[in-house]
Structures are given as C-alpha cells and as structure tokens.
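User: Design a sequence. Structure:
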C-alpha cells in the first residue's frame, strides 16, 4: 500500500505525555552490598519517627479551629452558617481528639511515606549468585549488577527490578541446557512485574528440555500474569530471544535480539509493545505471533532473518491448522524483503500485514474492527450498510476545525460515491482533545443517537459551531440543537446532564489510544491509517484499493 498522497491536518491531543521524573526525585532507599547473602533491612522505624515528628509539628503549629476558620472564608454564605455550627462543636474537642483527627487525615500519606522509605537496593558482586539474592529479596527490590558474567538460570516469581551497567557489560548466560536463562512466572492470579535493563542474556543453545511444554533455551520466558519491561538490553544465542505466552504482558524498548533461532514468539493471550528495537540474524523467523496475542510495533528494524521477518502462525505461512484471533497494530517499521540489503527470506507473512512497514501503519486483521466495536458499552453511530466491504473508522472531535472541514468538504463526496452505493460504511468515534466542552459535545452525540438523530444532529452542530464557536457547547444550546432536528429536548437534556454516555466516550478514547490515535481527525480504512483531514482523492484511492482486493 502506498502512503497517502498529501498529509492531512489534525488537532493534536492535549494529554500530558511528560515522563516520570528520574530516580533523583524518588524516595530514599536502603542499599546493601551482596557478596555473601545478608538479610535485607527496611526503614519502617525511621518512617514512624517521621510520622511522630509530623504529628508533633502539626499539633504545635496549627489548631484545628484555625484550619476550620480558614475553610469558612472559602465557602458561600449559606455554607458558612453550616460550617460555623460544625466548627463550634469541633473546637470543643480536646487536644487528644484533635491529634487523633489529624492522624486519620494524614494516615494515607504517611503510609505511602513509610512504604517508600522501605525500598531496598541489593548490589550483587560478581561471583555471587543472582538467584540467591532473588530468593532473599522482598517484592519491589531493585537488584543491581555490575560489569561481569554470571553462569546461571534465573527463576523470578515476585516483582523485582534487575539493572545492569549496559548490554555487553553485564551478561547472564544460562547454565542448564534447554531451559530459559530467565524464567518469569506468576502463581495463580497474582501479577508479577519485572523490569530489566542494561544486560545481555543468552541461554547458550537452541535446545528444548521439553518441547511439548515449550520449555526451551529462551533468553526470557514470561508466562502467567507476568508483566515485564525491558530496556536497553540484548538477547542472543537462544531458542527464542524472548517468548511471551499465556497472559504475559511486555513492553520492550531500545533492545536487540540477535542470532537466535526465533527473535521473539508471542502466543496465546500475551500482549507486547515493541519500539525502537532490532531483531536480526534469526535462523528461522524474526517474530512469530500466534493465537489471540496482541502486538504493537513501532519504529523497529526487523532484518536479515533467514525465513521471515514477521509471521502470523496461520496457513499459508505455516503448516498449521491454527487460526488467529489477535490484533497487530503499528507502523514505521523497517522490514526489508529478500531483494534488499540485509533482507529477510520473506519480509512479512501474510502480505496483508505489510501496513507495518508503511509510515502511517494501522491495524490487522480488518475483521478485528468488529470485535473492537462490539466491545464498546454503546455501539457508535454508523452511516451506510453495515455489510459494506470497506469499513471506515473516524476518530474525531466536534471542536476540531480540521474535523469539521472534513465533515463539510470531504465526507459528502465519500457518502455519495461509496457509502450511498453500499461500498463502504463509516463509524463515528468521538475522541475529544479540547477539554470539557469537547467532551460534553461527544456525550451529546450519543444522546442524539439515543433518539436516532445523530447524523442530523452532527450536521447542525458543526454548522452552529462554525458560526458561534464554543458558545453552542453548553447543555442548553446542545439541547436546543437536538430539538431543532426533532429530538425530545427533555429526554436529551436528562441523558446529557446525568452523564449517561460518559462511559461510552471514555471507551472510545481508550480504543483510539490503543490504536495509536494522537490527534483528530484520524481514520482507519480497513485497518489502514490516515492521520489528519486528507483530501478526498486520498480516501478514494485507498477505498478503491480495498475494493479491488475483495
């Protein structure tokens, strides 16, 4: 699929994407050196000392009466009279009661303080056993590894952080032939969260101790309710560099999977988000995705793998009877074919997931849109025959000028040429990015749909917004617009003010974020992404391509 002809314009999201502050802002931790194993210690005694100090300072510097008098100044006249009555009763409390009251107010904060002070860092010296430290550590411990090489297989069943000095400097080689170098597993319904950074992992072979149980020499095997985060690490000389199965969940960034039999395997109900990684030199496949797994790929290089770069475990890609019920999302990946330098034997199988190599990307398979839409708490408005072969998803905001330009200039031509002729259908999915008023307008759209008047309501609301601006986004104005297209005003206003469709808006936002929507309007045509209000010709070209494949 060619990239669209002209970049569309859109309204960017206003969500805060600022990263969390670095470790210099974190609570102090207890640090221990591990040559011989030493019992970890905590800092709860210090925490309780801090609690007592805070209470003493509060008791000495503030009285409950003064706090309440400050509150009086901020309330309305009616509330003042109520507060004064409460204050007279509260001021009569003795000092012991005041302290108890303040303690209860502060208890949640002080509990967090105590927990933060109890954090532990365990530093393992070269030559000591990492597994012994893992067995000794409490949940939440950070295990720091210096430069060096360890020959052992690790089993992790509790939440931990393992941090090395860098890939190629801190190295873990599996010692037991045929087993994972690092095996992360949860027990029962318990979630285990493990973060790994700055290490090289090698299982040392491509053998399987028990292939029927998928127990092989993987770099990392994560299963059960395991959640893993991997940064700045490398995985080499293993059966699978990383294997995720059952309900494992992984975020993998800036890492290298090099010269494994399989770079990565994601199966069963596992989920993975992979960005800015390199998967190369695999004896078979760079990546296999199977069963009901979900994968998001952005900005990766998947090259020089002998059989395929990325393969879905379905016929005709494999000699298998399996079907695929999962979801692939992403774009802007480099996945060269065999004819290119460092090309894969086959770049992608099936060819329909080639969207992963396009700049804008999208999602696959097309049928996944039915599952996604059916999972929403309220079905979104749809225009056209629901059996039409081409599905258009529109993530939009009533207050976005580019969205409204599409609705007034481009959409009428799409309706005439493709929707009214039964070739395509369009789903309206609100994705408000401009604050409370935009969110209210999104809810109002569902309130109009409740009475079967969404599309008429949309057209009149856009026309009014173009003339009057955001002044028409009050509940009264929205109800008036709905009434003008034939809606029962009171029913509409009751649904709007009660927040009946707030969950519907929240879920469509979550769906858009999962698909990588970061501005409005954003469209998906049979899964292929068009960001921004592109010209009619771009939509027509892509729709015609999809119709030609049917």
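Assistant: Done.
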């Amino acid at each position: 699929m060619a990239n669209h002809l002209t970049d569309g314009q859109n309204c960017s999201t206003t969500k805060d994407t600022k990263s969390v502050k670095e470790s210099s802002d974190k609570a102090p931790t207890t640090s221990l050196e591990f040559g011989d194993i030493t019992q970890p210690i905590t800092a709860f005694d210090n925490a309780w000392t801090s609690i007592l100090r805070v209470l003493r300072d509060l008791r000495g510097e503030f009285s409950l009466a003064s706090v309440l008098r400050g509150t009086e100044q901020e309330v309305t006249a009616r509330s003042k009279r109520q507060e004064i009555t409460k204050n007279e009763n509260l001021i009569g409390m003795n000092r012991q009661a005041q302290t108890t009251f303040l303690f209860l107010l502060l208890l949640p904060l002080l509990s967090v303080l105590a927990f933060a002070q109890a954090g532990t860092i365990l530093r393992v010296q070269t030559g000591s056993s990492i597994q012994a430290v893992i067995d000794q550590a409490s949940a939440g411990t950070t295990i720091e590894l210096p430069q060096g090489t360890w020959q052992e297989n690790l089993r992790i069943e509790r939440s931990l952080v393992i941090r090395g000095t860098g890939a190629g400097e801190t190295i873990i080689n599996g010692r037991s032939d045929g087993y994972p170098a690092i095996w992360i597993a949860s027990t029962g319904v318990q979630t285990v969260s493990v973060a790994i950074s700055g290490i090289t992992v090698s299982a040392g072979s491509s053998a399987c101790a028990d292939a029927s149980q998928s127990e092989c020499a993987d770099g990392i095997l994560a299963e059960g309710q395991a959640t893993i985060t991997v940064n700045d690490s490398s995985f080499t000389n293993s059966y699978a560099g990383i294997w995720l199965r059952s309900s494992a969940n992984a975020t993998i960034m800036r890492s290298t999977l090099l010269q494994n039999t399989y770079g990565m395997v994601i199966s069963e109900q596992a989920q993975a988000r992979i960005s800015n990684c390199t998967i190369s030199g695999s004896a078979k496949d760079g990546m296999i995705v199977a069963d009901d797994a979900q994968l998001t790929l952005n900005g990766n290089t998947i090259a020089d793998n002998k059989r395929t770069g990325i393969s879905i475990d379905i016929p005709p890609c494999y000699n298998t009877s399996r079907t695929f019920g999962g979801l692939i999302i992403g774009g802007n990946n480099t996945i060269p074919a065999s004819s290119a330098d460092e090309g894969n034997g086959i770049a992608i199988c099936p060819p329909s997931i080639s969207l992963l190599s396009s700049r804008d990307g999208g999602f696959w398979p097309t049928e996944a849109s039915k599952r996604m839409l059916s999972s929403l708490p309220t079905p979104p408005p749809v225009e056209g025959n629901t059996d039409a072969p081409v599905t258009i998803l529109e993530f939009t905001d009533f207050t976005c000028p580019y969205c409204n330009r599409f609705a007034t200039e481009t959409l009428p031509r799409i309706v005439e040429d493709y929707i009214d002729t039964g070739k395509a259908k369009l789903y309206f999915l609100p994705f408000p990015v401009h604050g409370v008023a935009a969110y209210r307008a999104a809810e109002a759209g569902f309130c109009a749909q409740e009475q079967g008047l969404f599309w008429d309501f949309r057209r009149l609301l856009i026309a009014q917004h173009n003339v009057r601006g955001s002044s028409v986004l009050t509940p009264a104005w929205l109800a008036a617009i709905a009434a003008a297209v034939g809606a029962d005003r009171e029913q509409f206003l009751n649904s709007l003010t009660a927040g009946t469709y707030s969950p519907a808006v929240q879920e469509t936002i979550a769906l858009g974020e999962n698909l990588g929507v970061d501005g409005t309007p954003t469209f998906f045509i049979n899964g292929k992404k068009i960001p921004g209000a592109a010209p009619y010709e771009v939509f027509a070209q892509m729709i015609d391509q999809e119709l030609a494949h049917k």
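The mean pLDDT is 84. The two ends are 15 Å apart (CA to CA).
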